[in-house]
Structures are given as structure tokens and as C-alpha cells.
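request received
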Amino acid sequence: MSNSAPGETLVELRAASVAGGPLASPATVEAVDWAIRAREVWVVGGLPGTGKSQLLMAAAGLLPLAAGQLVWRGRAFADMTSNERIELRRRIGFVFSDGGRLFDHLTVAQNVGLPLTYHRNCGWDAVAEDVSRLLDVLGISALADALPRQMTRNHRQRAALARALALRPEVLFLDNPLAGLDARESRWLRSFLGCVTGPDSPCPTLKAVVAATDDLRPWLALATATAVIRDQRFRPLGPPEEARGCRDRVFLELLAEEGDAD
Amino acid sequence: MPVPSTSSPSVARLLRAFGFAPRSYLVAVGDWLLRAIATGRGLVAFGLISLGVMVTRPTASSAVVRPLIGEQIARAGLRLLPMVLFLAAALGFAVIGQMVALLRQVGAQDLVGTVMVAAVVRELGPLVAAFVVLLRVGTGTVIELGNARALGEVEALEALGVDPVHYLVVPRVIGMAVATLALTVYFILATLCSGYLFAFLQDVPLTPGEYFRQIALALTWLDFVLLALKAAGFGVIIAVVTCYQGLAYPLRLSDVSPTTTVAVVASTIAFVVLDALFIVMYLLAG
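response:
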């Protein structure tokens, strides 16, 4: 992330309302004004069912907005042609929650290689080296020929991250990536994200990372900007050191250790 | 004392006797019609979108899409060939052979070719092949894509910049069109051969040369063109309808049966409509 101009706005939601989505939940986030800039690591907290996933999907252009605008580098998403949208999606990596939605009928290597073969219009052999390098970086080379259903949740999450990084995105969205991971894997993932957002990143094109979570504690050391969703509103709280001083009810609840609330 | 009303229409009384209140029956019919219209509109829109992707991106990502088309041809064509040949043999023995023998008995042996072309080439061949593909592959497609939708794989494709219509639908449309056409040709050839075999076993005095000569004489170039268009059209219908039903909503376990039934019914209705159009074309062509 060091090679990007400071403050360059990559993704922007203007007066956006987000509703619906794959969960068919009534979760709605309204009047969102949010700019994701280069060199930023956002962590968006919210209680379960408040619309974090929908907000991330909308910011990634995967869920149509109920109102407002999604803007990518100053260009409105709504004005883009279908080919321009496909081109945009290549610059955005998205790791879904619950095991990353890997394709069950493809092996790990094929899951990671699919976007490469599709966009480069080439066969599996032509992308084998890139896939192998990515799996190596993520520490799952030994599972290249495994099917997702044969893997643990930890490894599925790593494979999903490898697939999201395959196209060398500029912005990486992670939807509750630590959910269901054991403590050791959670530490590894955060350390890896610290590495990809650092100066010696294995993905030098990456300029910003956005993570949604229902537990803010593990993220505060990594984040440069925080926000919570409360009462159907997106509320930016600033950098973690500023946010720690705020008295936002949801922020405090998401920071609370187990048992603190009692 | 209340006097029993005698003014109720007899149809309404009959409906009530079978548990249908007239108003609710009308509402149910109305609902069904509105749903059918909405499904029809959705299918047409989905078909046009698929066609648009095929036209605007004919060679895009061909290294990925071509093997998928090959898979679909193998799945809907090659793997169904034994079943289609079995049906062709059975139909040839049961119907065509008897027809040949009957025409011979009534002295209409000169009409063998014409009857064969009208019955097998124009109607039975494409329809039987299409129904086999619909029931063996189409229903599976609804479940497969509905499951993919429910698991969020469609959004995952979009997130990777992979157009779901290009990746999931286009290979099925092309694959099923080619497979249905190929199965139709094999079905026709096998039916004609088994039909002759049955006639031969019944000692019908008709030489193979004469039998196939009559069929060849009855065939025109238009038959080949319309046969290809019709069979491929049936394949396209199966793919569009089943992909639409699979991708329209995330399927839950309880949705599998009704959605699959809707796909079969919608495809059958579309087959009948397309078949009627081709009959008109045959009639116009004389």
C-alpha cells in the first residue's frame, strides 16, 4: 500500500441506502457517506443482523443500492457499462463470510485459478505458476488438489483469501473473516493482513482493506479507521485511538470481553 | 323459516360440492395466470440477456467457456445416447414397424416415405430427443443452479468479475442446443432402421433399398434446415427455462420439487408453441 498517493479516494458511497441482499433480512443501512482512501485499513463493526455484509457488498458493487451513489475513483458505478463493471470488479477483492463461498466442484487450485484463466483467456497450465505462488504465500500448497468440502474452515478461509488476491486487487473487502476461526488461525490471518498492507506486500497493488466484524478487539491494532453500524446508520469513529475515547454504545459492546456486559 | 335458495347457478353448486368456493376458484385461476405471465416475461428477458451475452462476447474467455460447452455436450448428448437409441429401437418396433406393415396391407406402400418423414423426421425425432434431455439433464440443471445460487456461488462469480450468465448459462445453451440436435439425428436414424427391421420380421415385402429410397424422395432441403432449427430451438428452450428457474431464486430443499415441475411444464408449453410455429412453416412451404 506504500506506492499509492496519500488520501486518494478509491471507493465512495454518497447518501447511499443499502437494503435486502442474500440473507433476505430486513437489515437496512441508510444515508451512508463513506470514502475509502488509499492506505486505509477500515474496520466496520456492528451487531449481527445490522447489515454489515450488505454494506460491504454494496460498496464492492455486488448489491444494488436502494438509494444514493457508488463512486469508483470519481466515476459513478451506475454510469459504467457492463464491461467497465467487470473491469472494476477485477480491482476489488471480496472474501465472503462462512468459508468464502468457494466453488464446491472445483479444487482449491482451480478455485484460485478460475478468475485468472477467465480474464486472461488461457488454460489452467498457463496460470499454474501464479496459483502455486499464491497458495504458497497463504501456506496451503499441500491442499492444491483438495476440494473445499474436504478442508477445515481455517483452510477454506485461506483459500478464499488467495482467490480474492489472485487478480491483484486494489481494495480488499473481508466479510467477518475471523468468524469461526480458532485463536491461532485468527492471529495468523491478522498477521498476514498486516503483511499485505505493509511495504513488502506480496500483493503490491493492494491499496486499502475493509473488514466487517462483530468483534472489534482483534482489529484495533491493524485498523487505521473504524466505524460502527447503529440504528441503521453508518457512524465513522475515526482512528482506533480516537474511537477508544468515544462512548458509542455499539462500539463499547463490540469491544467488551465476554462477560463484561454482565 | 328460511327458504332454501334456488337461485345459485348449478356450476357454483357443483364447485362447492367438490370443495371449491367459486370466488376462491376464480382467484386461484387469476393468480395462476398472473404467475404464468410473470414467468413468461422473465423467461423472455432472461433469454434475451443470454442471447445478448452470446452476441457481444462470442470469443471472450473462450479458453474457459469452450471446455464447459464440451462438458455440456457430453452430459446432455453423449451420455444420453444409449437411452435415446433404446427409445428409438422401442418406438421403431412398436409404432413405425406396425405403420409400415399397415400401409402395405392397405396398398399404400408408396406413402411409406412421406409418412416416415412427417412422423419421425418432423415430429417424433425432435420431440423425443428434447424430452429426454429435459428430463435427464434439464431437471438436474435446475437443482444444480438453484443450489449454487443458495450457496452464494453466483455472487462469488460476480465478485471475481466473472459474468454468471457467460459462465453458467451460455455453455448450457450452446451445449444443450448441439446435444439435442445430435440426439435427434441419431434418434431418427435408429428409429428408421428399427422400423424397417420390424417390418422385415413381419415379412413385409419391402427391400431396404426401396424403403430408404422412398424416405429419401420424401425429404426436401427444407426438412433438413427446419429439423436443425427445431431441434436446436428445443435445446435452447430447455437451457433457458431450466437456468432461469435455477437462478431466479435461491432454492431451499422444499422448493426443489415445485421448481423442477414448473421448469418441466414451462418447457413443455414452450415446445408446443415452437412446434406449432414449425408446423405453420411446413404448411406455408407447401
